[in-house]
Amino acid sequence: MARPSTYSIVACDLEAREWGVAVQSKFLAVGAGVPAAEPEVGAVATQAWANMRYGPDGIALLRDGLSAEEVVQRLTDADEGRDHRQLGVVDRVGRSASFTGSECIEWAGGVTGDGYAAQGNLLVSEETVTALARTFEETAGRPLAERLLEALAAAQAAGGDRRGQQSAALLVVRKDGGYMGTSDAVADLRVDDHPTPIEELNRIYLMHDLLFGSTPAEQWLDVDEQLAAELRERLDSLGYDGPLAEAFAAWAGTENLEERVDGVDRIDPVVLTELRRR
């Protein structure tokens, strides 16, 4: 079996109460195995000759209250194949740890900082991991998903892995932060096989943010008489008749924008832009 050349970053935003992983690899469907995360618990990335048990087992240990360093120690001590493994962990309070086995192919290594661990193996150079860490730190204050994606792009621009690109993934979790508050997955996106997977992952993320993101309430627009008339006209032209609130809700549901709609007295400007674009 070929050894996957992979770089990843596990991180958290304690203010937003989010934990996440971003990864790219010359390996099919890297998102199926590398990332694991649970809100209020932590995040794990397992790679190189990945031990797929590290994800669920690491989350279980984090759930029990172990620190990131303790999780790495516990997992690797129990694994006879540890010299071929690579692992990154962030725990519930932002402590981080990274492990690179002695048999991982150069360049291989990791770096940790406040709230993140970045690591990679079979890379062009150390600069790939340096770029992951530097970019994550420089984008402080932005949403965690965007910071992770920016870090991936910077790592690729710095050289990436020696065998090229194939797949990428983004996982960000927050308690009840997913669809309609019924899941914890703020973003769970994968590109399984693509010549430029990071670019494609960014494209999918932008679509995801359009449909499922949120605009601060203070930026929503009041629907006055003039705007209501415009909504009515545009909905009529698209075949949505009946009372305005019902027609608007029906259109939004068809376009998968229902999470950005709350009645018709006020409107998310993102939704208004989409309606006008139609």
Task: Describe the 3D structure.
The chain has 278 residues and is an alpha+beta fold. It has two domains: 207 residues, Glutamine Phosphoribosylpyrophosphate, subunit 1, domain 1; 61 residues, no CATH class. It is built from eight helices and twelve strands. The protein has a six-stranded antiparallel beta sheet with strand order 7-8-1-2-9-10, with helices on one face. The termini are far apart. The model has no long low-confidence stretch (mean pLDDT 96).
Brief description of this entry?
The protein has 278 residues and is of the alpha+beta class. Helices cover 34% and strands 24% of the residues. The chain folds into 2 domains: 6-212, Glutamine Phosphoribosylpyrophosphate, subunit 1, domain 1 (4-Layer Sandwich), CATH 3.60.20; 217-277, no CATH class.
Strand and helix map with partners:
Blueprint: E1 6-13, E2 18-25, E3 35-38, E4 42-48, H1 54-63, H2 68-77, E5 85-91, E6 96-100, E7 109-113, E8 116-120, H3 127-138, H4 144-157, E9 167-173, E10 185-191, H5 197-212, E11 221-222, H6 225-237, H7 244-254, E12 266-267, H8 269-277
Antiparallel strand pairs: 1-2, 1-8, 2-9, 3-4, 4-5, 5-6, 7-8, 9-10, 11-12
Helix pairs in contact: 1-2, 3-4, 4-5, 6-7
